[in-house]
Amino acid sequence: MTPGRLSGVGVGPGDPELLTLKALRLIQEADVIAYPVAKRGDGVALSAARPHLRPDQQLLPLVYPITASPEADLPSYPEVMRAFYDRSADEIASLLDAGRNVCVLCEGDPFFYGSFIYWHARLNDRYETTVTPGVSSVMAGPVALGRPLCLRKDTVTVIPGTLPPEELTRRLAAADAAVVMKLGRTFGKVRAALEAAGALDRAFYVERASQAGERTMRAAEVDPASVPYFSIVVVPSRETP
């Protein structure tokens, strides 16, 4: 039997209309729609793709064993996640071996901090694989704010909020423009780093960019306890058009 094809498809930040034409075609051609998700709900990726699905497509939730503190801070976290990616890759492989085409949905872009990176590493050399880029929150966030991120000779720094405080401060202080991702529990130290870097007064917060619950405000006004993982801080360019 000819194995099925594997597709990693970026579905963007949440708005179903932000899928590319290629992403839409690959989603609709697939026999199986796999999607990463926390223990509850559909997740952003499936919600973005759901309006475009066929009724006869099989849905395969890939349920993360750990999604937040305190479990994510434990020394065992890397091993737990490695076992999850091994196990879920085997599940996808069994479907591909049965000749079924599998489309793995990815929030934003598959190769930009995406979970598909780990499935791709385990399956790409064994199956025909396609990776389709998607709109990242790095692009959607400034649009939600109505503020350009960068222009002219600006450099842009994308920073994970999981970095140590002193490293966050150093990188923010050196940036012409910046986007800080992976917030949620890290927002308190990110805010402190913005202030230490002298960037808090021009930093903005974007929550669930392009989704129904989108929220924007100045980063200085945000309650750290209210920040979900799907949020970013945007520090736009100082330049003016």
Q: Please report the total strand number as a whole number.
A: 10
Structural class: alpha/beta
**What is the CATH architecture annotation of the largest domain?**
3-Layer(aba) Sandwich
Number of helices: 7
Strand content: 15-25%
Strand order of the largest sheet: 3-2-4-1-5
The termini sit apart by 58 Å
Q: Quick check: average pLDDT? A: 94
CATH topology of the largest domain: Cobalt-precorrin-4 Transmethylase, domain 1
* Structural domain count: 2
What is the ordering of alpha helices and beta strands?
EHEHEHEHEHEHEHEEE
The percent of residues in helical segments reads 25-40%
Detail the poorly predicted runs.
none
Coarse shape: globular
CATH superfamily of the largest domain: Tetrapyrrole methylase, N-terminal domain
Structural Rg: 19 Å
